[in-house]
Design goal:
The protein is α+β, with helices and mostly antiparallel strands. It contains twelve helices and seven strands.
Length: 300
């Protein structure tokens, strides 16, 4: 595949999309949408404009590594680079699609304006039922309106845009702070991609495919934990992740501790890719039994 790099198509500074219709829509803040979009775009970092140009020149899609090389960014900036690419999703449709076993980023144009209008709000009856079920307590930090003065919200555990349902089982109570934190974290992930992940019934496959999407980049344990628990509750998702390293499965996953604000978090990075066995649970159980047998026979 021929890569079009930034320098190979001149010093083009703006990505030009189809012209918008002449009557400007208005965003929730009263500005014509166009004005807001332009304000936001002028805030794009220089590096991001280059990324957009490279993506536009490669409509077939690029892996993150190809994109990084074409944009002239060194491997040491890889982690930061992935984040910059994902931040573009605030304004652009930029799905990451699996093509021939690799994940490629494809630029599909600008995002239509979304004023945050929820076409299917949770009914007050359902909200009251969930708050009551959760004991009027934030299910993430445990704070309550009575003791801590927090405001409670009803949140979809798996966002609707990721394919989460409207059933009670997919709803929980969160305080404003936890709700905002979750929204901000989740907004940087590609909804279509996450929807695909949620379709894997096997927790091993969900974790593996998530790391595969971000191959070579550090992924926060928060997201891995969420994806592991999204379909069925996992007692020990870290163990499931360790099982992916067993020779019968064979993924090379590194881990590290990283500082995020004032706290330390765990991060994981996938360095290779292999096709997973059909039933990774059975494969890892079998491996453990064989390993135990071998250990017993070693003892005198
Ligand atoms: Zn909370």
């Amino acid at each position: 595949m021929r890569l079009l790099t930034y320098s190979s198509f001149g010093r083009k500074t703006h990505v030009v999309f189809k012209k918008r219709k002449s009557h400007p829509r208005r965003g929730s803040n009263g500005y014509p949408t166009e004005v807001v979009v332009n304000m936001l775009k002028s805030a794009l970092r220089q590096g991001q404009q280059i990324i957009l140009n490279v993506l536009e020149a490669n409509p077939q899609g690029l892996t993150l590594q190809e994109l990084r090389q074409a944009a002239g960014v060194g491997p040491h900036e890889q982690g930061q680079f992935g984040r910059r690419v994902r931040e573009l999703r605030a304004w652009y449709n930029l799905p990451c699609i699996k093509k021939n076993g690799k994940y490629v980023y494809i630029l599909k144009g600008e995002k239509p304006n979304n004023d945050g209008f929820d076409p299917e709000p949770i009914s007050p009856t359902q909200a009251a039922r969930i708050r009551n079920r959760d004991g009027y307590r934030c299910q993430s930090c445990g704070k309550t309106p009575g003791e801590d003065g927090v405001k409670l919200h009803i949140d979809h555990k798996i966002p609707r845009s990721w394919g989460g349902s409207r059933e009670d089982s997919n709803l929980w109570t969160l305080c404003s702070e936890c709700n905002e934190g979750k929204k901000n974290l989740f907004a940087s992930y590609d909804a279509e991609q996450m929807k695909q992940l949620m379709k894997y019934q096997s927790v091993h496959k969900r974790i593996a495919e998530l790391l595969h999407m971000y191959q070579g980049q550090w992924v926060d344990s928060d997201l891995i934990e969420f994806v592991a628990n999204a379909v069925d509750w996992q007692q020990d998702w870290q163990k499931r992740l360790r099982e992916l390293r067993y020779p019968v499965i064979g993924l090379d996953i590194e881990s590290r501790r990283a500082k995020r604000g004032t706290r330390f978090i765990s991060q994981y990075k996938l360095n290779n890719w292999v096709v997973l066995p059909n039933d990774p649970s059975a494969a890892s159980r079998h491996y453990e039994q064989e390993r135990a047998k071998a250990n017993r026979s070693k003892k005198p």
